[in-house]
Amino acid sequence: MTRTRLTAAERSEQLVDAAVTAFAKGGYAGTTTDDVARLAGVSQPYVIRLFRSKQALFITVIDHVSTRIQQVFREAAPAEGAQLTDLADGFDRLLAERHLLPVLLHGFAAANADEEIGRTARACYGRIYELVRELTGASAEEARDFIATGMLLTVLASMRVIGPDPVEQEPWMIQMVESFDHHQKH
């Protein structure tokens, strides 16, 4: 049996995918480069050789998640006349990519303690906000409300209230999700 060698770009992509999974589960503080290396099937020194530090890897992961969110929003928007509801439909696709949204929350949390991560997280958040306005022509208030709803969904997805493999639903969860669904239909 012959093994196919991955290119440097493919190996880097594999490491970023593994890092998304690892950071989604453990956050920035609770994840080591060794955790990422084990998930990717490489050595820890290899991770450091490619990314220099855990901080640089985490920043790469935040950028990756932000880029994926923007890609999904662009794909969900029709060529002309995009509405916020089109982007909301795209957000449903993001929920299926289970590890993306928790990483985003971990990035925001780490931003408080690490200025470089903070700059990256703020820039990513700003690009998403600006893209929402650009694609839909939404006012600042409409875009803010859309982003606020997205953050609520991100929190709910991170707690596994919604999305793939949800936890057993408690009454407050059902009420919140039902009221959200009702609000979306009107």
TrEMBL record:
<dbReference type="InterPro" id="IPR009057">
    <property type="entry name" value="Homeodomain-like_sf"/>
</dbReference>
<feature type="DNA-binding region" description="H-T-H motif">
    <location>
        <begin position="32"/>
        <end position="51"/>
    </location>
</feature>
<keyword id="KW-0805">Transcription regulation</keyword>
<dbReference type="InterPro" id="IPR050109">
    <property type="entry name" value="HTH-type_TetR-like_transc_reg"/>
</dbReference>
<feature type="domain" description="HTH tetR-type">
    <location>
        <begin position="9"/>
        <end position="69"/>
    </location>
</feature>
<keyword id="KW-0804">Transcription</keyword>
<keyword id="KW-0238">DNA-binding</keyword>
<protein>
    <submittedName>
        <fullName>TetR family transcriptional regulator</fullName>
    </submittedName>
</protein>
<dbReference type="InterPro" id="IPR001647">
    <property type="entry name" value="HTH_TetR"/>
</dbReference>
<dbReference type="Pfam" id="PF00440">
    <property type="entry name" value="TetR_N"/>
</dbReference>
